[in-house]
Amino acid sequence: MGRLTAVVLGSAAGGGFPQWNCRCPVCRLAWEGDSRVRARSQASLAASADGDRWVLLNASPDLRAQLAATPQLQPHGGVRGSPIDAVVLTGTEVDQIAGLLHLRERHPFTVYATEATLAILADNTIFGVLADDVVKREAVVLDRPFSVAGMEIELFAAPGKVPLYLEQGEPQTAELSQTNVGVDLRAQGKRLVFVPGAADVTPALRARLENADVAMFDGTLFTDDEMIRNGSGLKTGRRMGHMPIDGEDGSLQALSGLSARRYYIHINNTNPILIDGSPERRKVEAAGFTVAEDGMEIAP
Ligand SMILES: [Zn+2]
């Protein structure tokens, strides 16, 4: 009998940390080798109930390096093979799906995602490198659990928006749809909920997190306008479909009082919680949150 285990393959938002073209105050520390910050790859989790069969939650563009850094996910025995049984997708942003391209080479696994997400993958013909006769694509209905590798997994809608490359005009930034979902993962009586992107904490989302042992939540920006203020972007977090951490309508407040162990993941390179000892880091830690790091192992 194993134990439900999750490994943080990557903890940064799209672009990673530091971002290749960024010298914002936080990236600058990373470029200069300041010991208060550590590089982070783009957000993804690996989960297993038995230590042998693993499920990836999202496949980031950094997947190849993430696998190289994670012995549990490397081939064991036989000429070809991988302990990766499945990939569960929470959406189709570049940082959620581009890593699927690393998983070509005829290893059988199953991609689980909503019908809407699978339709977007089907429209992007490059994903045809995952040959139909080897890689199965399974449509998942929201709020209906399915079993994979000894775990029960359920996808649920999280307030958010369509991916940037599919925006037409002004998108709805906090809609509930199949295109932005969270993952509710259960095994051996333990429960982990993964919500890498959320524009809001609705009562239903809060209720789901109430019953979790571990909650991993969208930590993209500390303040809604931080990218505008530091000159690295023109958009607020909310416009990108991500609620801020701080402030009256932030996630720190919305997730207060939960009994779950709480982690921030999907952290943008501009977010000062990336800096050890910063006032923002101290604030989230004082509220009971852990800032996820690449390689962290979490047993709910
Ligand atoms: Zn930056």
Number of strands: 14
Radius of gyration: 18 Å
Shape type:
globular
Low-confidence segments, given as residue ranges, are none
Number of continuous helical runs: 8
Largest beta sheet, briefly?
A: 7 strands, mixed
> Which small molecules are bound?
zinc ion
Q: Give the H and E element order.
A: EHEEHEHEHEEEEEHEHHEHEE
> What structural category arises from helix and sheet content?
alpha/beta
Determine the fraction of residues in helical runs and give it as a percent range.
10-25%
Report how far the terminal alpha carbons are from each other.
Answer: 15 Å
Mean pLDDT metric: 96
Percent of residues in beta strands? 15-25%
Q: Going across the major beta sheet, what is the strand order?
A: 6-5-4-3-2-1-14
Structural summary, described in words:
With 300 residues, this protein is of the alpha/beta class. Helix content is 17%, strand content 23%. It has 8 helices and 14 strands. The protein has helices spanning 25-31, 63-68, 94-97, 115-123, 203-210, 226-229, 251-254, 279-286, and strands at residues 5-10, 44-48, 54-57, 84-88, 109-113, 135-139, 146-148, 151-157, 181-187, 190-195, 214-218, 261-265, 289-291, 297-298. It has a 7-stranded mixed β-sheet. A 7-stranded mixed β-sheet has the order 7-8-9-10-11-12-13. Strand 2 and strand 3 form a beta hairpin. The longest helix has 9 residues, at 115-123. The protein is globular and about 50 Å long. The protein binds zinc ion. Zinc ion is lined by residues 18-19, 22, 24, 26-27, 232, 269-270.
